[in-house]
Amino acid sequence: MLILGGSGLLGGEILSQARAQDIDAIGTSTQSTSPISGGHWLQLDLRDRQATIELVRAARADVVMNVAYRQSDWATTADGAANAAIATTSAGAHLVFVSSDAVFSGADSPYSERALPDPRTPYGAAKAAAETAVRAIAPAATIARTSLIISSKGASVHERLAHSAARGDVHLFTDDVRCPVHVADLAGALLELAGTRRDGMHHLAGPEAMSRYDMGRLIAHRDGLDITRIRAAQRALLPTPGPLDVRLDSQATQRGINTRLRGASSFLATSG
Q1: What angle do helix axes 9-20 and 183-196 make, rounded to 10 degrees?
Q2: What is d(CA 218, CA 161) in angstroms, rounded to the nearest whole number?
Q3: Residue 6 neighbours by CB under 8 Å, 6+ apart
Q4: Whether the predicted pLDDT of 258 surpasses 90
Q5: Spatial CA neighbour of 3 closest among 46, 35, 32, 51
Q6: pLDDT tens digits, residue range 24-55?
Q7: In which element (H, E) is residue 47 found?
Q8: Superfamily of domain 2-153+181-208+247-262
Q9: What is the pLDDT of residues 8-26, one digit of tens each?
Q10: Taking a C-beta distance cutoff of 8 angstroms, is the pair 63, 108 a contact?
Q11: By three-state DSSP, how is residue 230 classified?
């Protein structure tokens, strides 16, 4: 298995779980190659189509999982996804592409796998374009949309934001609703889908809708921080608020996999 974007939070968890299952897995990073436990990094810039094709062919992987993105970079998120699809198809491997709930505007929550993208942000538009490219280039690919990814160690951007809020540095929005998912659950579900070569669109988010404010309070409580310092705000009052209530309905996908996607109240109640 080749993990494009293996140096990130989700990519690192997928690599760890894959190796625990005795899967020969390698990750890529835009940074210089460096040794890691149980394997090594391969350096790759997904924006370079020819380099992506050559690396994927050389890796000779059965499955290529693309979890790479940059929120402010269309070339990496959208063009890079197309390059990965071209390279994977050329190599005869199965592609798993991870997309985002950012492809939706929030005007028609909850969203099933059949819902059509209607993004409101540049990042959402890039992910929607990536989905379209993957479907056109690699029709048998697995596409999985997910939501806010949380870890157990404060490693995600959302946990860092909650810590900042607990210091009184920022506000958290009460009207910005998502379906958080634990990184371990998400990685396990992706590996399961990859193992069965499940094609088409799948939603992999937690079953519990929660505001960023409530989620931040749970994170702060879990980590022993002062939740009374967390201040509430409304995203709808911003000049350009973007999507507000975006809930992914993952029930159809959950019925087809063994990995249980826990709700945030469950996985944030402990450190596991």
Answers
A1: 60
A2: 12
A3: 12, 14, 15, 26, 27, 28, 29, 41, 67
A4: yes
A5: 46
A6: 999 999 876 554 444 567 999 999 999 999 99
A7: none
A8: NAD(P)-binding Rossmann-like Domain (3.40.50.720)
A9: 999 999 999 999 999 999 9
A10: no
A11: coil
